[in-house]
Amino acid sequence: MVGAFAQSRHSLASAVAVFLSMLVGCFASRACAADGADAPPPAVLIVHSNQRPTPAAVVIEDTLRGTIPAQLRRPVEVHSEYLDVEIPASATLVADQIAFLAHKYESRNVRAIIASAAGAVPFALRLREQMSSAVPIVHIAVPLDALPAMALPGNVVGKPVDLDPTATIKLALQLHPGVSRIVVVLGATERDRAWEKRIREAAARIVEAPDFEYIAGLPTDQVLRRMEALTAVFGLGGLMSTPVRHLSLGERMRCEIAASLLHSPRMLFLDEPTIGLDVSAKAMIRELLWTESERERVTLLLTSHDTGDMERVCTRAIVINHGRLLWDGAISGLRRGYLKAKRVTLWSESERLDLKLPGVRVLSSASYRTELEISPEITPLGHVVDAALRQTAIRDMAIEDAPLDEVIRALYATAKPESVTS
């Protein structure tokens, strides 16, 4: 891969050197007439967008320094400047940098400027304004998809590079044939947005591509802090180095939800998040979702057939029947509106209770334990307790609302499909 990279960079730099040869030749006659006996040799200025010599910049630099004199067949001074234009800076700082370089090279007989990478092109254009508008600019390693937005003048030429990641993704899939999902992590800069667009387009071109997930829009340090926080909240510390195939269903679900929350979304869509999980895992997932929603103010849109998910995580319910909206409102309002009955369990000193009251239905009766369903609008709960106390002492009592699935079943049974209630 490194050799192929170097070879492609060498070919690209050689092609640009040919462009440079033609451009410098256009000014050769005027330059020779202007050059006196003491005039310095012609010079080429290379401006790199990065502030440090990256491997790509080193290849470009070495190739141009060898190719330019060979193409021009005369002594040529090659100067290089490594800029920091990829790091956001104030307009005053950039202007000062341009003024400094214009003064530095005003007596160096610069015949052409090479802009290495997209970030260096606008800088080179402004630098030329202070040096000489006749100096041609040659760009190198500028992404093909970035050129239209630059609207470059006619005397700025070069050979763009096509940064299509399709081949790289296909190679990665060949090396890892079992991959079912690819996570793309990107930052918040303009370059990150450009790469996200390229990767999305490449993914759409790949036949039978795995699922792609994008974690984008956050600076790297913020992503790392978020990962650390989610790892602690979801208890993932011991799972970070475990292969996915060795994780239980509950562990995988915790990891997937944490990954979905990594980029701090304002809304998270969850489809049956606890399906297939055991009781303990369900309780953990529900608690984590509720905690994260409250802590980070994340809106959760949860679709589920498990009413326990809704009761523990949600405050608002939407009930749909055959594509029609039956209810959109608070879960507490759903209970009050469609099934007001209470579940009451009594533990008594007597083995049996005989409670025959209107609005009271015995659900189960065992030794010293009676479970009742009470309609408070018919017989208040206090009257039922009084009736039980007249028969025996009550050791304990539990009062519960009707299960939400029974409430929803009552809604389906009583509401017309075309009605909307809230």
Task: Walk me through what this model shows.
With 422 residues, this protein is of the alpha/beta class. The protein folds into four domains: 160 residues, Response regulator (Rossmann fold); 54 residues, no CATH class; 93 residues, P-loop containing nucleotide triphosphate hydrolases (Rossmann fold), CATH 3.40.50.300; 62 residues, Alpha-Beta Plaits. The chain is built from 15 helices and 15 strands. A five-stranded parallel sheet has the order 2-1-3-4-5, with helices on both faces. Helix 4 crosses helix 5 and helix 10 runs parallel beside helix 11. The longest helix is centred in the N-terminal third of the chain and has 25 residues. The N terminus is likely disordered.
Primary descriptors:
disordered N terminus, Rossmann fold, single chain, 15 helices, 5-stranded parallel β-sheet, alpha/beta, 422 residues
> Which structural class do the helices and strands define?
alpha/beta
Number of helices: 15
Tell me the count of domains.
4
Element-level helix/strand string: HHEHEHEHEHEHEHEHHEHEHEEHEEEHEH
Q: What is the CATH top level name of the largest domain?
A: Alpha Beta
User: Span from first to last CA?
Assistant: 61 Å
Q: Say how many strands there are.
A: 15
* Low confidence ranges: 1-7, 29-34
Query: Can you say what the CATH homologous superfamily of the largest domain is?
Result: Response regulator
Output the CATH topology of the largest domain: Rossmann fold
Characterize the largest beta sheet: strand count, sense, and whether it forms a barrel: 5 strands, parallel
